[in-house]
Amino acid sequence: MAGRMYPDPERKRNRGYLGEDSSGLPPRDLQDRQQLRYELDLNSWNLRIWGVAASGFLTDSYNLFATNVILATLSFVYFPHERWCGLIINFFTLLGSVVGQLLFGYLADKYGRTKLYGIELVLVIVSTIGVATTSTGYGDISFLALFTFWRFVMGIGIGAEYPLSAVITSEWSSTSSRATMLSSVFLMQPVGQALAQLVGLFVLLGENRAHRLHELQCGIDTRHEEECKRIIDGIWRIVIGSGAVPAILAIIFRFFLYDCGLYTLEVKNKPGNAFRDTQRVYGAPETENSNGFPSPSGHMVQTTANGGTLTLPTPPEPESATSLQFSLPDLYNFFVRDKNWYYLLGTSMTWFYLDVSFYGFSLDNRGTLSDLWATTDAVSITSDLWCWHVPGSAVPSWAPSNNGSGLPTWQTDATKPCNTIYETLIEQTKQYLLTVSLASIAGSACFVVFANRIPRREWLTASFGVLTVLFLVTGGVYYGVAHTERSWGTVVCVAICHFMFNFGANTLTFIIPAEIFPTCYRCTCHGISAAAGKVGSIVAVLIVYGINAGYKSTTRQGLVFLLFATFMALGALYSWAYLPDVQRVVHDSTPDGELKKRLETRSLEELGGGYLGAVAEGQAFGVRNKWAVVKDKVRFRVGKGRKPLDGNEAGMEGGGGGQYPLRGGNVDHVHRGGGAVNVVNGTIELPAR
Description:
Blueprint: H1 2-5, H2 27-41, H3 47-65, H4 67-77, H5 84-111, H6 113-116, H7 119-132, H8 143-172, H9 178-186, H10 188-211, H11 225-242, H12 244-254, H13 261-266, H14 271-282, E1 292-294, E2 300-302, H15 328-337, H16 341-362, H17 366-373, H18 421-450, H19 456-481, H20 488-503, H21 505-511, H22 513-516, H23 522-550, H24 557-578, E3 583-589, E4 595-601, H25 604-607, H26 610-616, H27 623-639, E5 649-650, E6 669-672, E7 675-680, E8 683-685
Domain Major facilitator superfamily (MFS) profile: 49-583
Organism: Cercophora samala
Protein name: Inorganic phosphate transporter
């Protein structure tokens, strides 16, 4: 009795890695986990889970990409001739995201997903208010320093959203709906990008109606300089402050969400709570007993719909030999002994290379888009310009002949130096929506439709390859049509690139890390992978800034396209060599006796077996092993005319001399045409010839 009233303190410690075969779970808990999976898989797409996760992801995307909207207005008011200020703001925002992803990923695995879920939105709300109210005080506070500090704090909240939303969505989803749910959440990223642009546009139009902004010729006519700065200063504050509204709405629901039963059972070792919380979200399955149902281990679980009674679970059986979560032995076993660093390397490097190109295109790309849309070369700042002779004109002070520093930083279109800040902001919004937002939303929406119809790991590799070709083509097209009437060709190519980003690599680098890691380290590994991506985005910002500052060619953007193609090719290599298949090919028998092939998504528990579990199924990892498999396939197709083993296919007996592993079978030794392929510790040994 005393043991039940005062449980062993060790049971309060989180369980660590369960092993590739889940041998760290006692038989009773294994049965409970099977029951939980059964209950989860009875359901499909869940609006409640999606709404909670998507609302936060929308907020974070809005706040992150609002940079594209507000930097021109900030430059106009506070630093019209300092080009490095935008770099500092973006750098510290992204650095904050890295901190948030690493910190909250670890904390979510350690203390529970929902204990952290909502805190990151509090950070976003507080920092949004801080950014929107930033001022210089009585002339003794650096506006840039204070603004950057609050953007760094906001970045922490934005970064925290990635592992939390991804993993909570993944764990609460049924196996069949997991990819659709995750991609639907990620759809909010391009929607948030577009929303930031639209809010900025509506605020600008509203201020124009209220204050005749266009008639004041702000930026050109210095006679209204102070009035213009006051109006423009209010625009960016409203745009940023609006980002707190969806965060406030989302946070209400987040504090009433529960940890998924899989985490509660596997890590927290609380099977009763696991069943209770699952039924709170999905309801109880149909059973003969209306008050509750016995799980396979005999735990009685309350049904919230019928108000049954909750019976305390029976005393637990002795624990299996499982290391404690985040202990050095457990980390060593998971990452080193069982070689799951392969997975982490694959997810981290693919996300890194993806974000180098994606954020190089999507963050602070005002000047880039203006250059792509330009139909003429840059116009020199001379007295031939009509705006030179406007009363109170600021244009003569920009001219190099008058020792000026050139166009101010808010004026991003060198072909239209007489544009006011109002006209510049209108042009930037139009170019961003048509080139980036619409294509990105279309790409993400298409992926939601095809998420379960395409082999996701293979498509990640293929999409990187397609993007490599697209970047090379875009670079070539740019060099051919830049600053001519045919510049629309480059714009179309860039839009296609953004479509492919979201139809493939950008979405999949978010989804796959939420699927392939075990429950005890799923948030941590997703956070590390996402942080690697944000490091890539920092690299992208620095690369683009360096090229624009140090390479004075008028067609330097073509170099950026060609350079980014290299990163896409490296992303294809890492996704091909280091990531597992998250689906299997299954052959079903039809009534007429034929075999119909379909894709079946693997469960989180199966994928949680990690590297060793995947190798046992016949998958290969590493460049050398993958290349050996490719050569072997080619050799047999050419020399034998037979289909070689594909460890991803299951449920089909051998035919024509070939052999296919049955689902869940161990294929460490697969006989093939007089030889055997031996998989030993992930190394593929080909038969002697």
